[in-house]
Amino acid sequence: MITFYYSMAPNPMKVALFLEEVGLDYKPVPIDTKKAEQHTDAFKAMNPNTKLPVITDGETTVFDSNAILLYLAEKTGMFLPAPDQRGALLSWLMFVASGLGPFSGQAVHFRNFAPEKNLYGIKRYDYEARRHWQIVDDQLARGPYMLGDVYTIVDMAVWGWGDRLTYMLGDDDIMQSYPNLDRLMKDIEARPAAQRARGLKDLHSFQQTMDEAARRSLYPQLYAPDPV
Predict the structure, then answer these.
(1) Domains of the chain
(2) Cis omega before residue 53 (within 30°)?
(3) Which of 19, 54, 45, 18 lies closest to 159 in space, CA to CA?
(4) Please, what sign has the CA dihedral across residues 162, 23, 187, 195?
(5) What proportions of the chain, in percent to the nearest 5, are helix, strand and coil?
(6) In Å, how far from its chain's centre is CA 11?
(7) Which residues share a beta bridge with 54?
(8) What is the pLDDT of residues 90-139, one digit of tens each?
(9) Which helix (H) or strand (E) covers residue 62, if one does?
């Protein structure tokens, strides 16, 4: 059985969607990052980077959400494109992992969580996040899914972040700028697997308050010495 270490953040939700789409038997294990559960020795043994999600599959441990998606897709043979599109699959997965996710994450951090307003940081990451999402929207103008007519793990990777755009970019009308992305998000949200993935929130009560312990857990740089 697969053990799935998760929170309700964008990256774990991608994996939850895949697990529910394929109907794999798995055990969900909540990790409350505001309680610093990701910093325990047991968790760091699975992922030295102390990030979610992580899966274990027998003797195999996989961390990083897009690596997990690729591992599970290859294990099951599901939600992969035709072999001649493998290059495109890897390219778009890495695009999400190295660009779309990080820039979106920094955009929401500087807008909503930074202890001081940094206008340069807000402007830089808002611009880059929007630029990356425009690339996604342009790709989706070519077909119903990121790789054309086939629903794949790339779409799941995009979905994990896509439903947070209004909050991340502070723009209630953001989806009007990305009509093709909006179409994809609504298509995936209508899938029963997406609803089951969202239902994971009912299995565990994650801490909602951002107290000092949570800040130390999530933003240790606030307590580190200033660089020389």
Answers:
(1) 2-78+195-223 (3.40.30.10), 83-190 (1.20.1050.10)
(2) yes
(3) 18
(4) negative
(5) 65, 10, 30
(6) 2
(7) 5, 63
(8) 999 999 999 999 999 999 999 998 989 999 999 999 999 999 999 999 99
(9) strand 60-63
Round to whole Å and give the CA distance between 151 and 174: 24
Burial class of residue 203, CB neighbours in 10 A (0-12, 13-18, 19+) = exposed
What does residue 148 show for φ and ψ, rounded to 5 degrees?
Answer: 100, -120
Which two structure tokens, joined as six digits, stand for 77?
A: 């043979």
Q: Judge residue 180's burial from the number of C-beta atoms within 10 Å of its C-beta, 0-12 exposed, 13-18 middle, 19 or more buried.
A: middle
Query: Residue 74 has which token pair?
Result: 């290859």
Give the H/E segment covering residue 88. helix 86-95
Summarize pLDDT for 140-177 with one digit per residue, the tens.
999 999 999 999 999 999 999 998 899 999 999 999 99
Amino acid at 72: L
Do the Cβ atoms of 24 and 47 come closer than 8 Å? no
